[in-house]
Amino acid sequence: MHFTSEQRLDGDVLEREFTLGEIPGILWTPESASASAPAPLILIGLPPLGLRPMYPRVAGRARYYAARYGFAAATVELPGSGDRPRRPALEQARADLRRVMEAGEPVTDEIVDALVLPLVDEAVPEARALLDAALALPEVGGPAGYEGGIISIGVRMAAVEPRIAAAGLYAGSFVPRAVVEEARRVTVPLHVLLQWDDEANDRQASLDLFDAFGSREKTLHANMGGHTGVPQFELDAGARFFARHLK
Questions:
Q1: Do the domain assignments include residue 172?
Q2: Is residue 99 assigned to a domain?
Q3: Separation of alpha carbons 120 and 151, rounded Å
Q4: What is the pLDDT along the chain (247 residues), one digit of tens a residue?
Q5: What is the domain range of residue 233?
Q6: CATH number of the CATH domain containing 46
């Protein structure tokens, strides 16, 4: 992790941009974080829109976690997003998805697999490398949480990464059948958000995924509204969920 810039936000949150190898990312830490009192870490997953377009929303959540609950938060750019090199196969899968959705045709398993599985296979090792680097900092400590982003990446992280103690997941993206099977191996506490009227999401598929999770503690928060209509109060509900399990 090589820090490239830093700034103080609202006087009590330190925001540092970094590169992890060639991957850009951002780390937020509360003023209270120190080697003697390290801040618990939340990894924030990104959607494929990219870090810069999503910065206001992601930074807003990170600043809230840091200032209100004393959490550190970190994120990295997804493969094929932002300024990272394009992935031709991923671009083709996105084009295929747009084509069938605009035509009102069903989204096939083949399109979903091509769109999601290669991204999960590449993004999860990068997220684990971010976890390595962030937890090596004296002011950041474990256990860690994972929240947001593409839900299939969160499922894989929760299934394979023992340092993830809790996960807050957003139902709102296509999920391959293989990832649903992986969900049965997830045992950490879960807080899952679902927009009931999400125009781009199969509600029943989201409910089936929730049912598949093997966690004994799993909570589904379903709200009326479309994909971008998550109520503001859910931010605090998610933060309190992490406070229960990371502190």
A1: yes
A2: no
A3: 10
A4: 999 999 998 778 999 999 999 999 999 999 999 999 999 999 999 888 889 999 999 999 999 999 999 999 999 999 999 889 988 988 899 899 889 888 888 889 999 999 999 999 999 999 999 999 999 999 999 889 999 889 999 999 999 999 999 999 998 788 999 999 999 999 999 999 988 888 777 888 899 999 999 999 999 998 888 777 788 888 899 999 999 999 8
A5: 2-85+120-246
A6: 3.40.50.1820
